Automatic annotation (TrEMBL):
Residues 37-121 form the GIY-YIG domain. PROSITE patterns: GIY_YIG. This is DUF2075 domain-containing protein. Gene3D superfamilies: P-loop containing nucleotide triphosphate hydrolases. Transmembrane segments: none annotated. SUPFAM superfamilies: GIY-YIG endonuclease (SSF82771), P-loop containing nucleoside triphosphate hydrolases (SSF52540). It holds the Pfam family SLFN-g3_helicase. It comes from the Bacteria.
Length: 581
């Protein structure tokens, strides 16, 4: 039997009894054996509002396990209303190759997918248990795909297309991913050090993890954060105070979705914070247990508006017994975030002294050959353009002569379900002010304008959407919203996120002179990158060229499957065309 069996029944004792009677016929003895005597995976689903609640599990005895669920007070409380409305279902999944390890992996993958489904309100599981090597782990992907297709035939709303799931920002930041060996080792050490510090009442502990764009910092962060809560819950410790902090509106939105779907905010209250708000609402006299900081390079290193301090990392550390930091020096974008060498080295040295310094090295985002990754590194770090390697490892790089053709190519990609998350992004070289201003714009939107071609900046088109569409988009990252195919994303919007294909527009601030890429702050509209920064010694310096280089690196590392490039500077465009010859 090559294909999985998926049986859907009414989620009740009566539904279970009907299944037993159905299978008790001669022609279904093989099916009966696989469903009732082999290990199985099951999904409880119920729908009280517009969205679903789900519970996923695996068992060696589905009849006994389901009866246990119905006998559980907690389960009764969750499902009684749904059962009375007759809208709760139980999916029982079997396969003749199922064993304990394979069913655990299927269970974990279903949790990962259903948490990322737009119409799932909440997952009631505690945490997953992804497996390592086992027989037959090589069948896992193909068996799961067949299971998902069968589930999807029954309910396309609850079980959307795999490509839609994989493109969602919630999926990409989910704590339920199977980690790489490198990530797993670091996670185990972080958890060990966190609980050791809390058990021995050590304070001012800093765990510092560095990694370039695409090395899996966000997944490591969310997975470790969730596991610490899960371990505490398993031990019956309800007093743990653990917060996740990120200075990025798009990421805040994603993390809040994850916290809601996993029920963390129901149990622990507000746990997702922006740094200034966290600092203003907590004190050093009553520090929380653990503060996780994703995208810590976005923290402020000087005061501004609501933040009156001098260094947000230092202020957060004063308000947490243990601080876990994910950091990439090459993604700092503004002078407000700029780190003086001595100060950054102080924090690195502190974490090293405590035995808490780790580095992620494996590139996980870009599905390309090492030669292509080196080519991108040379362009964005060394500011050199080398010939584009012929061996790309399936990755696609194209140089376009004009933005019209680049837009057409990106839109063509989105017609394929596997590439729907393809968007255009650009350096911040055209005016944009999201706040109401007295001076009227010449055009309806703030736009990227190149000759006769023009497109609105990110979040401009949402002004014209109806209320229902705006409400639907509220939980979606920028690139997931349908109208954004006609917009241009900035570094501030796309930082920390993936695209299938990135259509990168290198604006006038990126030039090519005397065999090198140079950055011209005078052509940039990113005031926060080109303005003076007052340093600790009182001197005022400019860091525009460094920060604009970081801007380009962020844009050039967004594409998972490829990057399409157009450059406004004629000499840069010519150099890129030669490299592609």
């Amino acid at each position: 039997m090559k294909y999985p069996i998926v049986e859907k029944i009414n989620d009740s004792i009566q539904g279970l009894e009907e299944l037993e009677r159905k299978l008790d016929v001669k022609d279904l003895q093989k099916v009966k054996e696989i469903l009732l005597e082999f290990p199985t995976v099951y999904i409880h689903s119920w729908k009280d509002t517009d969205d679903y609640d789900v519970y996923i599990g695996e068992t060696n005895n589905i009849i006994q396990r389901t009866r246990q669920h119905f006998g559980s007070t907690g389960m009764k409380e969750k499902w009684n209303d749904s059962l009375s409305k007759n809208n709760a279902n139980l999916y029982i999944i079997g396969h003749e190759h199922f064993n304990k390890s394979l069913t655990l992996d299927i269970e974990n993958r279903l949790m990962l997918y259903l948490m990322s489904s737009e119409h799932v309100r909440k997952i009631h599981n505690l945490r997953g248990n992804p497996q390592r090597k086992y027989y037959p782990d090589f069948e896992m992907d193909s068996i799961f795909q067949r299971i998902w297709k069968k589930l999807r035939r029954d309910n396309k709303e609850l079980f959307p297309q795999e490509s839609v799931i994989k493109d969602s920002a919630v999926f990409k930041a989910s704590p339920l991913h199977r980690l790489t060996g490198e990530q797993e080792q670091i996670k185990d050490k972080i958890i060990d050090r966190v609980f050791n510090a809390l058990d021995t009442e050590m304070e001012n502990q800093l765990i510092f993890i560095e990694g370039e764009a695409g090395t899996g910092k966000t997944v490591l962060n969310s997975s470790t954060f969730y596991d610490i809560y899960s371990y505490a819950e398993e031990k019956g410790d309800k007093s743990l105070q653990c917060c996740l902090i990120v200075n990025h509106d798009e990421q805040i939105r994603v993390y809040k979705q994850i916290a809601l779907k996993l029920g963390l905010e129901d149990k622990y209250g507000e746990i997702i914070w922006k740094p200034t708000r966290f600092i203003n609402h907590h004190t050093s006299e009553a520090p929380i247990d653990v503060a996780f900081i994703d995208e810590a390079h976005l923290l402020l290193t000087q005061g501004k508006q609501a933040y009156k301090g001098r260094n947000q990392l230092q202020d957060i550390m004063c308000r947490a017994k243990v601080t876990v930091v994910m950091f990439d020096e090459n993604q700092i974008l503004t002078t407000e975030q700029y780190w003086e060498f001595e100060k950054l080295e102080y924090f690195r040295a502190l974490s090293k002294k405590q035995g808490n310094y780790f580095v992620l090295t494996k590139q996980l985002r870009i599905k390309a050959s090492e030669e292509i990754i080196d080519w991108i590194d040379c362009l964005t770090k060394k500011q050199e353009i080398h010939p584009i390697p012929k061996e790309k490892g399936g990755y696609e790089i194209k140089i376009f002569d004009d933005p019209f053709q680049l837009e057409k190519a990106i839109k063509e990609k989105t017609k394929n379900d596997d590439h729907k998350l393809s968007r255009m992004i650009a350096t911040y070289d055209w005016s944009y002010n999201p706040k109401p201003v007295a001076k009227k714009r010449l055009l309806k939107y703030w736009e990227v304008i190149i000759g006769k071609w023009h497109k609105p900046w990110n979040y401009e088109l949402e002004k014209d959407l109806d209320k229902n569409t705006k409400r639907k988009n509220k939980s979606l990252a920028w690139a997931e919203q349908p109208q954004t195919i006609d917009e241009i994303g900035s570094t501030f919007t796309i930082q920390g996120f993936d695209l299938n294909y990135a259509g990168v527009i290198l604006g006038p601030s990126v030039k090519y002179r005397k065999g090198k890429i140079v950055f011209d702050p005078a052509e940039s509209c990113n005031r926060k990158a080109v303005q003076n920064r007052t340093l600790s010694d009182g001197s005022r310096q400019k860091f525009g060229e460094i920060l604009l280089r970081h801007e380009v690196r962020i844009l050039m590392t967004r594409g998972v499957e490829g990057i399409y490039i157009y450059a406004c500077d004629p000499e840069l465009q010519e150099a890129l065309a030669r490299a592609d010859a």
